[in-house]
Specification:
heterodimer, A: nine-stranded mixed β-sheet, 42% helix, B: alpha+beta, five-stranded antiparallel β-sheet, four-stranded antiparallel β-sheet
Chain lengths: 290, 687
């Protein structure tokens, strides 16, 4: 076996390295994180846009993900407003994908013959992306470590062929591997640097920003500006820059949501607006593919 | 005799879809055998694990004989072409064709000889279609294929009479092989019969038969709880789900830190059950304990599974505890104002608006219920605050219950806390029913306000769609009233609630809402009676006489009559009524205007007098006890007139020559029927 279960604890960064190496060997294009604030790895254009249209595509990458409402000022051992996902997207979904996935777990020291690995029904939907899929959350001894989804729809368009998306929650996974109760106790590298050393201050400050200091008047204005810009770029038929603006809209909305200034009714309206943007971008993208 | 054995191997199919697919496959295969007149063992079963859907039917003949039959062709006068076509389509020659007269004229006929068909051929031809007919509540596509299935289908094993059946189902060719390793989808192995298949997997600890899995899980759990002096709640739905998400169940007893038992038990139970599919345990006094069951799908040889699950529950309970500690101290009263920011429903305002209306409604109800107006107003005001808490955000199914705990912690009156906790109950026909009057009042005003609101903005359910579960709301309302034996003027409450909406600026048509909602609730009430196994004619007659304001009375009368209708007392009462009303019905055609009372001065004999006196006695009885509260007793009183009525009919001719006397006798019978009608509309009862 190439990936021997080592006696020493697999660090956070080694976990990433191993997954990258593993999926690289499976023919995936290893990308770097997208350089905008996004809520999940799915939002990376290498997933959203590339899952549309007929062309085959395989990729894997780490994506820092931001969920402002989940911030807890670094006080909660399980919740972060900024965390990492390891994302794999393969189109069309390969026949042996389950085997590939289980072997990827072995590459980071989780042997499926020793642990209770379960594929638990979890159908996924992203209202802002106009996306939906069927699949599972994967449990390892009761802990959810991965989302496993067959995309059925993206940007309001039916997927043909169907892509499979595998999203590892890296912190959860490492807490499992390293046997830690708090995310902040995770070992980042072999020099003893911890997750706390790297991110605790950031969690504290961003929570304060998201919940207290973000200038909501400005953000409402910025949202409008970005929305307008997206529409303009869609008219110009340049889908990738249009999508960037749309992602920014989405993040601004998330901060406004965290600040608690969006009512329930408004919330639905904003989500619908972002979805409309995504749909129009998806259309332009598909046209450019054929 | 042969066996049919099919295995459909796929990625993990969710429990509900699996159960549904089993039933569908069973139904479809049964229909196939019946349609083709093939004998089969009707006690066959369909089995499943998350990855394997398995069909096994035995006692099937290898061949079926099709009897010879005469097939009618075209009319003898039809063009030549038609005959040629007929010969071709039956694969025969002209010599075999004969003419025969029928009622419709003379036709060509062909006699098809009796012949034998191999069942395996029929199966190969039809299996693909049988599988296509499986309908999924939710299905998906994958890769480049066009097939819809619960989850990606990987292979099909199909055997008949120990030989493989060859057919193509979309992109998949059937074979006699399957993957023995479901995880890596490896270890292809040939199976030629069901028994060796079952045996092979059993040796690996894998149980294909879901009922067997259920038994084993339950036995193991029972063994442990007896030893540990524990109890578990019977939760069929959870058990059935667990049974269908494992193939080799291993029951593991785990525990969590006892400190979490300070968090309200509903929160702990929900975390365990709905989030993790664990089974919580209780001690003999029904208190939750810190032991819980995990049903794993692997033998926990190294103890990893137990450890992992305990860590997961620890993290989840820490989260819940954190929110509980944070939320419980947040002052409920001070937060009421914030409900203005929370939309109740588009077109029906915020939750703040809703609780204002509920407060008015419940305070009106409190007069009827003889409960404290202050207390029910407090309960109404704070009852929705928990919707803003982190805990309800995490555990939406615990809305109300969590609010009740907050209220208790903050020292609210016991009855107020309980009312908040039970405000959403009952939720439909089967759900638990609140019994305490404060709870009933709060739940009643919540539901009625919602019903009025939805009817006000015209979101009534249609025959096929009821997205806001309005029917369930109405049936819950009916249960609250009937099962708690509450006398309440629902119509007035509807009008009052409409005015509360109007005060808030809603343009509601009170008359329209009142009519439509009354009809709607009445329909639900009829359904409710039907569920309670009340005879349809009894339902019709009670609901005909008694409206929305008399639900309780209607219920009790229906129950009473339903119980007695086959007994002597019920039978006789109806007979007396029918005998009288039949005469009235025929005579009414001659158009006699009734006055409503008979003139005793016109009586010619004692029978009339006695009957008259008896009717008046009965009327007095009904008046004296403030109408008829004791329905059994009333029925008895009604039936007691039997002798007077029979004597009357045996000795008196209604149809007297003197029209005045005849009319007077009809008046007497009319009085009798009217008296009976007061109790019940017997005319609709079938005998």
């Amino acid at each position: 076996m190439v990936y021997k279960i080592k006696k020493k604890t697999l660090s956070f960064q080694d976990t990433i390295f191993n997954l990258q190496k593993y999926w690289s060997k499976k023919g995936c294009v290893i990308l770097q994180p997208y350089d905008l604030e996004v809520g999940a790895g799915t939002f990376h254009p290498a997933t959203t846009l590339r899952s549309l249209g007929p062309k085959p595509w395989k990729t894997a990458y780490v994506q820092p993900s931001r969920r402002p409402t989940d911030g807890r000022y670094g006080d909660n051992p399980n919740r972060l407003q900024h965390y990492y996902q390891f994302q794999v997207l393969i189109k069309p979904s390969p026949k042996e994908i389950k085997k590939m996935y289980l072997n990827s777990l072995s590459s980071i020291g989780i042997n499926h013959e020793e642990h209770d690995i379960r594929f638990v029904e979890d159908d996924w939907e992203s209202p802002t992306l106009g996306a939906a899929g069927l699949g599972w959350e994967v449990w390892c001894d009761g802990m959810e470590v991965t989302q496993f989804t067959y995309f059925q729809q993206m940007a309001g368009v039916e997927c043909k062929p169907v892509s499979v998306e595998i999203t590892y929650g890296l912190e959860r996974l490492c807490m499992f591997i390293q046997n830690k109760k708090s995310v902040f106790d995770l070992i980042w590298n072999d020099e003893g640097i911890t997750y706390k050393d790297v991110f605790h201050k950031s969690e504290k400050e961003f929570s304060a920003y998201n919940f207290e200091y973000a200038n909501t008047d400005n953000l409402f204005k910025i949202f409008e500006m970005l929305e307008e810009e997206t529409k303009l770029l869609v008219e110009k038929k340049i889908s990738l820059p249009a999508y960037d603006q749309c992602l920014k809209c989405s993040h601004v909305f998330n901060i406004l949501d965290a600040r608690g200034v969006i009512s329930v009714a408004q919330r639905a309206e904003y989500i619908a607006r972002i979805r409309e943007l995504t749909k129009s971008i998806g259309k332009v993208w598909i046209e450019s593919q054929s | 005799m042969s066996e049919l054995f099919v295995e459909l191997f796929s990625e993990e199919i969710p429990a509900k879809l699996q159960i549904n697919a089993r039933n569908e496959l069973k139904k479809n295969i049964k229909n196939f055998f019946i349609e083709n007149q093939i004998k089969f063992n009707e006690n066959f079963n369909v089995y499943s694990t998350p990855n394997r859907l398995v069909l096994y039917v035995d006692k099937i003949p290898n061949e079926i004989k099709l009897n010879s039959e005469e097939i009618r062709g075209p009319n003898v006068n039809a063009p030549e072409k038609a005959l040629e076509g007929f010969i071709r389509s039956n694969n025969t020659r002209l010599e075999k064709i004969f003419k025969k007269s029928t009622e419709k004229g003379e036709f060509y006929f062909f006699k098809k000889e009796s012949r034998k068909i191999k069942v395996s051929d029929l199966l190969e031809k039809n299996l693909s279609e049988i599988l296509t007919k499986i309908t999924w509540n939710k299905s998906m596509k994958w890769a480049n294929y066009d097939l819809y299935w619960g989850r990606p289908l990987k292979s099909i094993l199909a055997i008949f009479n120990k030989k493989p059946l060859n057919f193509v189902f979309n992109h998949i060719n059937s074979s006699n092989k399957t993957f023995t390793d479901k995880s890596l989808e490896e270890g292809l192995k040939i199976f030629n019969d069901f028994n060796s298949y079952i045996k092979f997997f059993k040796q690996k600890g894998i149980l294909i038969d879901q009922d067997l899995r259920k038994k084993i899980i339950q036995n193991k759990i029972n063994e442990i709880i007896i030893k540990k002096n524990l109890k578990i709640e019977q939760n069929e739905r959870l058990i059935d789900e667990i049974v269908n998400i494992v193939e080799k169940p291993a029951v593991i007893i785990c525990d969590f830190d006892k400190k979490f038992l300070n968090v309200p038990s509903e929160i702990l139970i929900t975390t365990m059950q709905s989030h993790q599919k664990y089974l919580p345990t209780f001690d003999k006094k029904n208190n939750l304990t810190n032991n819980f069951f995990v049903v794993a799908d692997i033998k926990d040889t190294k103890g990893f599974v137990k450890l992992g699950n305990e860590r997961v529950i620890e993290a989840r309970l820490s989260d819940a505890e954190f929110f509980w500690e944070k939320n419980k101290t947040q002052n409920l009263v001070k937060q009421v104002d914030k409900l203005k920011n929370i939309n109740y429903f588009k077109g029906l305002g915020s939750y703040f608006d809703k609780i204002q209306r509920m407060r008015k409604l419940s305070s009106l109800i409190s007069d009827d219920f003889l409960i404290s107006k202050d207390k029910i107003e407090i309960a109404s005001s704070i009852c929705k605050v928990d919707l803003m808490s982190d805990l309800v955000g995490e555990f939406p199914e615990l809305q109300g219950i969590v609010g009740g705990h907050f209220a208790k912690f903050q020292g609210f009156d016991k009855e107020v806390c309980l009312a908040v906790s039970e405000q959403y109950l009952p939720n439909g026909m089967e759900s638990k029913l609140p019994k305490k009057m404060y709870s009933v009042a709060l739940s009643l005003s919540d539901k009625l306000d919602s019903l009025v609101g939805f009817f006000g903005i015209n979101l009534k359910p249609t025959s096929s769609k009821d997205p806001y579960a309005i029917r369930r709301m109405a049936i819950s309302l009916v249960r609250l009233i009937v099962e708690n034996e509450i006398k309440i003027k629902l119509k007035d409450l509807i009008v009052y609630n409409c005015s509360a909406y109007r005060d808030q600026g809603y343009d509601f048509d009170t008359k329209k809402i009142q009519n439509e909602l009354s009809d709607f609730i009445n329909e639900r009430f009829k359904n409710y009676l039907k569920e309670k196994k009340i005879r349809q004619d009894i339902i019709e007659s009670t609901t005909f006489l008694l409206g929305l304001d008399d639900l309780l009375k209607a219920y009790k009368k229906s129950l009473c009559l339903n119980k007695n209708i086959k007994k002597e007392i019920g039978f006789e009462t109806i007979a007396v009524y029918k005998r009288s009303s039949n005469i009235l019905n025929t005579e009414e055609k001659i158009s006699i205007e009734t006055l409503g009372f008979a003139d005793p001065g016109l009586f010619k004999n004692d029978y009339e007098k006695k009957l008259y006196k008896k009717i008046n006695d009965i009327r007095k009885y009904f008046l004296s006890i403030g109408k008829d509260e004791n329905y059994e007793e009333s029925l008895k009183i009604l039936s007691s007139i039997k002798n007077e009525v029979n004597d009357f009919f045996d000795n008196v001719i209604v149809n007297d020559e003197d029209i005045i006397i005849k009319k007077n006798r009809l008046e007497l019978l009319n009085m009798l029927c009217k008296t009976f009608d007061n109790y019940f509309n017997f005319s609709k009862i079938e005998t």
